Amino acid sequence: MEGFFKRIEEKKKLLDSHRPLPEYTVKSIRESLLLEWTYNSNAIEGNTLTLMETKVVLEGITVGGKTLREHLEIVNHKEAILYVEEIVQNKESLSEWQIKNIHRLVLKGISDKYAGTYRDQDVIISGATHTPPNFLSVPEEMKKLITWYKTDAQKLHPIERAAYLHGIFVGIHPFIDGNGRTARLLLNLELMKNGYPPIVIRNENRIDYYNSLDKANSTDDYTDFIKLVAVEVERSLDLYLNLIKRTDS
């Protein structure tokens, strides 16, 4: 894994050496990633809107034959991304309040009763070996997560830290609904804070994603999940570097 991280760090340094990036380059990649991230994160959770339909909804147009919930999932996710970008820009430190705000945006208009509120009942993760903790222990587990983040987590490589943050959060499953989307927003929040571009966990890779997450939560072996995240970090860096190369030539 160290060799893998070394290659990623070299690509990140190369990208950083081109900063500030051309305005159009930043705008076009940001729009592309925002669309891909929104489409894939919702598709993983069962949203049936296609990539092009997602683009249309983000432009403010309604797609016939699709539910109000599916439309809201797209619009809400974009709002949540904008909020995450704001957190990064303001250099805010991670807090439970922040996590609840992200979740509130994800479920706005879909389930206002539970938006930004920890669950009041027990849940199981469909198809997973791991069982989330009793709902009564969720507030305590979330406090532990923030304490871990501020202490031991800071010794980890940023990519590892982002993967663990996502994994531990999903293991706690603090909300009734919207945990997956919120977890992926937190993952990218941590990456972006450390100067990496956001990544897209693609819907086509959801089986590997679910399996590596379940392995992490049930055995505490995060190797596969960290590797999956690192592969996507490199993919996002390559997207920027390839576009810069084309701009320079």
Automatic annotation (TrEMBL):
Protein name: Fic family protein
Fido domain boundaries: 94-231
Organism: Crassaminicella indica
InterPro entries: Fido, Fido_containing
Pfam families named in the record: Fic
